[in-house]
Amino acid sequence: MKKLSARRRHPLAAVVVLLFALAVTGGLYAAFAPADTAKADETAQSLAIEEGKKLYSVGCASCHGTGGQGTTDGPSLVGVGAAAVDFQVATGRMPLQQQGAQAPRKKAIYSQAEIDQLAAYIASLGAGPSVPTKDQYSPDGADIAKGGELFRTNCAQCHNFTGKGGALSNGKYAPDLTDVNPKHIYEAMQTGPQNMPSFPDTTMSEKNKKDIIAYLDTVNSSKSESPGGLELGGLGPVSEGLFAWIFGLGALIAVAIWVAAHTAKAKKS
């Protein structure tokens, strides 16, 4: 007992007890604590990239190359980012059915889970725009009036002022934006697919993109009313001018003929 008491009074006794307690605590934590979240996320991302590479090899490599470097049949995908993949594949534009002036929108052949895996693989080839979150593209709380101003300035030349689409040169066209998912509109602005210029955050802020999405959501809503009366399809001044020429000028010609006919009758009588 005297030896034990002497050891307890030793200057290093407290340090030994502390080290022992730390070792026991660390061992218990390692045994019972959940797996590290960051490590789990890294593992899940690696699996997604691996599965995405398999899907890519089957459905994309023949045009874009085995490593996404591009070929004569398809551009390089290095650096296009996950957002470009999500847009092109989720809207059915890719895989391309046949070569043409422009890839048309059609039913997607991949599930969203598979699209996410493809996007993860392409993103691993080089840094690029990521898939936006719902907070980024949701029109809630956005400035609709500002969105209309931005859309008319930057987009209406091709898509018409309410997003109904329009023809371009050499068989190309600006698609109708009426029923497009807000996420895909945001991704299109970020990545600039096909003939469209890109509007990254350095050119157009995230808030401005939300404003444009809110404007399109409002003007194309089934509950939206045209304050100017009959909207004539919302196609802009061409359809309005055509209406004026056909019906307006036609009505004037009809009135002129009626007046001339009745004037001739009056002279005869």
From TrEMBL:
<keyword id="KW-0812">Transmembrane</keyword>
<feature type="binding site" description="covalent">
    <location>
        <position position="155"/>
    </location>
    <ligand>
        <name>heme c 2</name>
    </ligand>
</feature>
<feature type="domain" description="Cytochrome c">
    <location>
        <begin position="47"/>
        <end position="126"/>
    </location>
</feature>
<keyword id="KW-0479">Metal-binding</keyword>
<feature type="domain" description="Cytochrome c">
    <location>
        <begin position="142"/>
        <end position="220"/>
    </location>
</feature>
<dbReference type="GO" id="GO:0008121">
    <property type="term" value="F:quinol-cytochrome-c reductase activity"/>
</dbReference>
<dbReference type="InterPro" id="IPR009152">
    <property type="entry name" value="bc1_cytC-su"/>
</dbReference>
<keyword id="KW-1003">Cell membrane</keyword>
<feature type="transmembrane region" description="Helical">
    <location>
        <begin position="242"/>
        <end position="261"/>
    </location>
</feature>
<keyword id="KW-1133">Transmembrane helix</keyword>
<keyword id="KW-1278">Translocase</keyword>
<feature type="binding site" description="axial binding residue">
    <location>
        <position position="159"/>
    </location>
    <ligand>
        <name>heme c 2</name>
    </ligand>
</feature>
<dbReference type="GO" id="GO:0005886">
    <property type="term" value="C:plasma membrane"/>
</dbReference>
<keyword id="KW-0349">Heme</keyword>
<feature type="binding site" description="axial binding residue">
    <location>
        <position position="64"/>
    </location>
    <ligand>
        <name>heme c 1</name>
    </ligand>
</feature>
<feature type="binding site" description="covalent">
    <location>
        <position position="60"/>
    </location>
    <ligand>
        <name>heme c 1</name>
    </ligand>
</feature>
<keyword id="KW-0408">Iron</keyword>
<dbReference type="InterPro" id="IPR050597">
    <property type="entry name" value="Cytochrome_c_Oxidase_Subunit"/>
</dbReference>
<feature type="binding site" description="covalent">
    <location>
        <position position="158"/>
    </location>
    <ligand>
        <name>heme c 2</name>
    </ligand>
</feature>
<keyword id="KW-0813">Transport</keyword>
<comment type="subunit">
    <text>The cytochrome bc1 complex is composed of a cytochrome b (QcrB), the Rieske iron-sulfur protein (QcrA) and a diheme cytochrome c (QcrC) subunit.</text>
</comment>
<keyword id="KW-0732">Signal</keyword>
<feature type="signal peptide">
    <location>
        <begin position="1"/>
        <end position="30"/>
    </location>
</feature>
<dbReference type="Pfam" id="PF13442">
    <property type="entry name" value="Cytochrome_CBB3"/>
</dbReference>
<dbReference type="GO" id="GO:0005506">
    <property type="term" value="F:iron ion binding"/>
</dbReference>
<keyword id="KW-0472">Membrane</keyword>
<protein>
    <recommendedName>
        <fullName>Cytochrome bc1 complex cytochrome c subunit</fullName>
        <ecNumber>7.1.1.8</ecNumber>
    </recommendedName>
</protein>
<feature type="binding site" description="covalent">
    <location>
        <position position="63"/>
    </location>
    <ligand>
        <name>heme c 1</name>
    </ligand>
</feature>
<keyword id="KW-0249">Electron transport</keyword>
<keyword id="KW-0679">Respiratory chain</keyword>
<dbReference type="InterPro" id="IPR009056">
    <property type="entry name" value="Cyt_c-like_dom"/>
</dbReference>
<dbReference type="InterPro" id="IPR036909">
    <property type="entry name" value="Cyt_c-like_dom_sf"/>
</dbReference>
<keyword id="KW-0677">Repeat</keyword>
<dbReference type="GO" id="GO:0020037">
    <property type="term" value="F:heme binding"/>
</dbReference>
